[in-house]
Structures
1.
Amino acid sequence: MSSPAIQQPTPQLFFQTLNAYQRTEALKAAIELEVFTAIAEDKATVAEMARRCGASERGLRILCDYLCMMGFLNKDGVRYSLTQDSAIFLDRHSPAYLGGITEFLLSPELTAGFNDLAAAVRKGGTVIPDDGTVGPENPIWVKFARAMGAMMSMPAQLIAQMVDEKTDRKLRILDLAAGHGLFGLAFAARNPHVEIVAVDWPNVLEVAKENAQRAGVSDRYSTLAGSAFEVDFGTGYDVVLLTNFLHHFDPPTCETLLRKVHAALADGGRAVTLEFVPNDDRISPPEAAGFSLMMLGSTPSGDAYTFAELDRMAANAGFSHSEIHPLPPTIQQVVVSEK
């Protein structure tokens, strides 16, 4: 009986990781040049793409071959084609187009936190001045509001369906750190009895108000400008939305906000939190667990919290109990905490 083959050590992962920036830049270049859109328009050879994209044939041949190796394109002879994912998410003609997200995820305000990650590790938080991305009125959140709407449309609709399944009663909803406003607007679009109060920085709320106008619900959409930690919310809300917000802060700060949310809710009201929630091992699932590194590089003390941690924060803030709900096909989960 032969012994199992011993896998030899290899530096392949090391070199792949060191060169990973090339993958980012290749995808960014393809989006900027509208390569995916050109192929969707049947400009599928290098010569055809060169005319459509205003680029050299040599450059496009090298770029498209690299995109094939990355898994974004297929190649048959001299013709390229989109993968199913590329056709859905990277063709500008697709309603699910996500290419605009690069304006936020690759913005200098965000990537600056990773130029010296070792310094952030030594410090235990971002080395970007003025509290990084959570500094007062940081302009990055206008970029977020304008760039991330397409990606957030689906989870917004899924949450509205989950929380307000019957759409048969009046709901007063507080949308904290509303950004583009799509989470609150998803409720308003489904239920004509919903009224939304959105909280965010003044310049960000302009984007939310534009979206409310387009959705035809401006008469049921009002705003409170300023920090969620300082603005007077008022009381009597049925639902408070905390979407992609708590991960920016440490647990004591989160509990401070959750106590304020608890006080703003009517009896029987619910706080609805959308988060990247890792398992207790904090290394799985990788997409959720890896979000901790994003917070290390961009915030003073943010993190990706497990459900046990989120549950404990809510309990310490006075909520009676919390439940976690998967939100497929997204990688995020929803925590509903009841007053």
2.
Amino acid sequence: MSHTEVWIALVGMAVVTVITRALFLMAGEHITVPDRIQRALRYAPAAALAAIILPDLMTWQGHFTVAFSNYKLMAGVAATVFYLLTRKMVGMIAVGMAVYTALRLLGG
């Protein structure tokens, strides 16, 4: 794959991402979802996110581990606790990254 093709792919992916996010945000409250669907989807994003993220958090250096030496898992736990206490998504990301970075720098 040439450099030009790589750049075309990157720009194309960026455009698609921006358009899909912009359309979702621009629609805002103009589109209403029926209550039945809202109730069904209330916990689906959390379950899907857990299914995607947990396997990554549970592995450290290529091995499945649930220990204090697993920095990703410890950062995930700290971020989850922060979110449950505050319900602030951006803060959760910041706490998770701060804990992960601190553990990596201090733990060697």
